[in-house]
Amino acid sequence: MHRNHVYVFDVAAARPATLDDADVVRTALLDLVADAGLHPVGAEALHRFTPQGLSLAILLAESHVAVHTWPEHATAYVTLTTCRRPPDGFVERTRAALADALGGDVVGRMMDDA
């Protein structure tokens, strides 16, 4: 039995301005959470770096989702850890949604932790 399901999405060649826009990044994470059928509990942490970039984590009833962006390199790293497996096709849909929201190419993978 798996306790955790971990999904990792590497974003490359994204739009730098978008990666530095906390509202756009937050919306992309919340869309990912909704598609996975998970539940935000209303707690989040946002840190902005100078001169650019951000880290954002959203707590979920099922664990958490987080993103770290590097606009100067046009990259981001998104992780979702959950105790409940999202519906079939989640990785493919999330890759497409993140590419649409942030631009660039998105590579996604699942890593299960027993």
From TrEMBL:
Signal peptide: none
Cofactors required: pyruvate
Top-rank taxon, per record: Bacteria
Keywords, comma-separated and alphabetical: Autocatalytic cleavage, Decarboxylase, Lyase, Polyamine biosynthesis, Pyruvate, S-adenosyl-L-methionine, Schiff base, Spermidine biosynthesis, Zymogen
Keyword S-adenosyl-L-methionine: yes
Entries under PANTHER family matching the protein: S-ADENOSYLMETHIONINE DECARBOXYLASE PROENZYME
Protein name: S-adenosylmethionine decarboxylase
Species, as recorded: Cellulomonas avistercoris
